């Protein structure tokens, strides 16, 4: 008697399907064909498409500020290298160094991160394209405000699958920002000129993140014009015209013996007359990093020492 005549038709078709499936898998294996890997497509802040073959596990940053962000979000073991200018947090000293200027492509290949993070203006896109050809994708961020920096942290956390682990830390920065706003929002708003170079005179322009940090700290940027260069060269006539209430760039004595010695006519401005000239911590104020709220608090200390 035929064995199949006593077998339920459903069972017959199940075993037939199973045998065919095994045969197909065996044929794929014999032909050397690989199962397709999961491709991840990200869009960075420059609207560039960044393609990853898998979730990134090994990363590095090409800007000191971005390195701080990675240490804030990632497990330290995930960060494979830092740049020659990275000095915070302390753990950067345990990592290999890959120069970002000039770009050390050979050193980058040695550590071979799955993804490189950088910021607009730090890494030429031609360098990013070369890294892409080497199999190392590059992800750009850019910031116009303090909220952009905090959103950037959340963005990194999402990419690195560390949202749950990072959420409370990022939320604490947002809460601290709101506390500062509550302390300064109804106070007078003095104008602040932040000098970055003395000869010729360069300063933080209106279209830099400092403008927003000053707003949070209870002040305004004394530069009232948006220049093409975010850090414009200023004439003495322009500085006399805007007549800032406060100058950032050094202590009063340091600026008196250097800047105002070069430009004695600028002693007429209110900042000099009232001795409201201050030296702020450079790394805090020049880096859009997780310490951005700490930078705002330092600015507030000089601008509104009465605000508690």
TrEMBL record:
<keyword id="KW-0732">Signal</keyword>
<feature type="domain" description="Fe/B12 periplasmic-binding">
    <location>
        <begin position="58"/>
        <end position="307"/>
    </location>
</feature>
<dbReference type="InterPro" id="IPR054828">
    <property type="entry name" value="Vit_B12_bind_prot"/>
</dbReference>
<dbReference type="InterPro" id="IPR050902">
    <property type="entry name" value="ABC_Transporter_SBP"/>
</dbReference>
<protein>
    <submittedName>
        <fullName>ABC transporter substrate-binding protein</fullName>
    </submittedName>
</protein>
<dbReference type="Pfam" id="PF01497">
    <property type="entry name" value="Peripla_BP_2"/>
</dbReference>
<dbReference type="InterPro" id="IPR002491">
    <property type="entry name" value="ABC_transptr_periplasmic_BD"/>
</dbReference>
<dbReference type="GO" id="GO:0071281">
    <property type="term" value="P:cellular response to iron ion"/>
</dbReference>
């Amino acid at each position: 008697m035929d064995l199949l005549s006593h077998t339920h038709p459903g069972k017959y078709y199940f075993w037939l399907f199973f045998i065919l499936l095994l045969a197909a898998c065996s044929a794929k294996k014999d032909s050397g064909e690989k199962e397709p890997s999961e491709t991840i497509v990200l869009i960075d802040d420059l609207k560039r498409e960044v393609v990853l073959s898998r979730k990134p596990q090994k990363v590095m940053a090409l800007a000191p500020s971005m390195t701080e962000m990675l240490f804030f979000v990632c497990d330290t073991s995930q960060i494979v290298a830092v740049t020659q200018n990275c000095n915070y947090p302390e753990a950067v000293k345990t990592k290999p160094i890959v120069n970002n200027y000039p770009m050390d492509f050979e050193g980058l290949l040695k550590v071979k991160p799955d993804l490189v993070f950088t910021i607009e203006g730090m890494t030429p896109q031609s360098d990013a394209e070369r890294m892409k050809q080497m199999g190392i994708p590059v992800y750009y961020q850019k910031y116009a405000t303090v909220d952009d920096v905090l959103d950037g942290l959340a963005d990194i956390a999402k990419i690195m699958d560390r949202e749950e682990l990072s959420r409370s830390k990022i939320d604490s920065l947002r809460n601290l920002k709101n506390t500062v706003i509550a302390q300064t929002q109804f106070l007078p708003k003095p104008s602040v000129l932040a000098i970055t170079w003395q000869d010729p005179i360069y300063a933080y322009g209106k279209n830099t993140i400092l403008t927003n940090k000053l707003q949070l700290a209870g002040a305004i940027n004394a530069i009232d014009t948006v220049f093409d260069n975010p850090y414009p060269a200023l004439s003495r006539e322009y500085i006399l015209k805007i007549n800032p209430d406060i100058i950032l760039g050094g202590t009063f004595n340091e600026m008196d013996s250097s800047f105002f010695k070069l430009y004695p006519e600028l002693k007429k401005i209110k900042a000099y007359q009232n001795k409201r000239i201050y030296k702020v911590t450079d790394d805090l104020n020049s880096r859009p990093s997780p310490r951005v709220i700490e930078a705002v608090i330092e600015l507030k200390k000089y601008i509104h020492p009465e605000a508690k």
